[in-house]
Amino acid sequence: MSPKKVNLVMIGHKDHGKSTLIGRLLYDSEAIPEQKLREIRKESRRQGARELKFSYLLDSLEEERKGGLTIDIMHTPFKTEKYLYTIIDCPGHREFVKNMITGASQAQAAILVISATEGIQDQTKQHTYLAKTLGIQQLLVAVNKMDQIDYHQRRFREVSESVQNFLTSLGFEEVPIIPLSALKGENVSQRSQKMPWYKGPTLIEGLDQNILPPQPPIDKPLRGFVQDVYHPDQGKIIICKVETGILEAGREIIFSPSGQEGRIKRMELFGEEVDKAEPGDSVGLLFDGVNYIGRGEVISYPENPAEVIEDFTAQLIVLTEVQIKNSDILTIRYGTAESRCRIEEILEKMDPINLTAQKRVPKRLKNGDVAKVVFSPLDPLCLERYSQFPPLGRFVVEGKKGTTAAGIVLKLRRPE
Ligand code: GDP
User: Fold this and answer.
1) CA–centroid distance, residue 354 to ligand 1 (Å)
2) Residue 69 has pLDDT above 50, yes or no
3) How far apart are CA 170 and CA 327, in angstroms?
């Protein structure tokens, strides 16, 4: 059986060693091509460094990406005894938040890199908060650059205590904290002889021991989106993508917000008749008794239906140079659905450094702001809470020139 795949993100303050740790993980698992290694060796010598400068690897890849080359070594998976890990992104990349919220790339876990000399810094807090908001529940901490503090246990203890307090305040529990040196390769894949006082796992062992593979949400109530509707000779075929739960042929289905109901007469996956579909499957459905259905409707079982909502509170992250204020009317997109919503109230803006609500609620939200906002839909819509149904609880705000903001639903109110 091929190993399960796990997607990771690397988070942490600038210069604490994210790129170096990615380079080290890829190097140790022999995922860097020889040609690239030669370049790194040459560059490291040129800089007079004794070790390989892995940060150069990522910098040079970034350059290549800008230059339009598609060599993407960073996305090469590395294999351990248990999993095939892919580092999908760093929050420094502009597309990170958007990809996470739109579901283009979903990470199951994050590695938080903290320099042993500097400890917790602004971006340490920002990135961790972002990871939490985006629903990443599994976290490992790498206290990096242990070589710079002579592998001292006392300093490591100080840093890990403050990290522990910070993580507990965000609701992360029992997070492994591993002292290591990405540059020297101590405690990454190989156990360090320099820190005999440390009895815990190496980073690779820590990943394998702590991370649970992604679980398809089959135990949840059924939810899915209508993607398309075709009208071939034999009637109407509705293409639906299952997001949560299991879709079974023969069952009664309700479409929301239109409220139409019908029984599935036939279900096809890749042209073959099937009697079940799981999250991720796009199936063609033939119905008894369904009239007009358009793209964007949500399917569910009548016993536990997707309901139209009155209003919702979302955590909104502004991604471009727009200004968002009360009473603005925005178009939001979730799954294949679109709806116009009015901003009822900006409730609070987060202070990105202290991670608390700012005292003054701003009149307008600008690029980079993170805020709690109440929306009321002008067209009927069936969002869900992100914590309960992630694919139905995240949305993007579409402006004239593309995506301007992204959000996740924290709370919603149904009509009384
Ligand atoms: P990033 O901004 O978080 O990606 O940080 P980089 O990986 O670019 O590292 C910033 C600097 O710290 C570079 O000069 C690295 O060579 C250095 N560095 C990274 N990890 C270590 C380490 O474990 N020990 C030491 N001494 N330096 C490190």
Assistant:
1) 25
2) no
3) 32
